[in-house]
Design goal:
14% strand, 88 residues
Amino acid sequence: MPRGAEYSPALAGFTVPKKKFRKSVQRHRIARLLREAWRLNKHSLYAVIPPDKQLHVFLIYTGIEMPEYSIIEASVQKGVAALQEAVK
């Protein structure tokens, strides 16, 4: 499917398991941190995606404790770098 103005080079989804974080406030906070880290780091991935392709990325937080933003951002950057290598 060719990309037009209405298509994004990559679509992302985020989830935090209820089994590890019973309170929705905690799950939503982690998901917000994941979304923010993705928003700030996705542009380096967009540059290497061919114009006729679209990636679907799903980020799942699997830790057992509340993370700090710096940890999440480092993990997202590592994942984006791995995706850049896979796309090339």
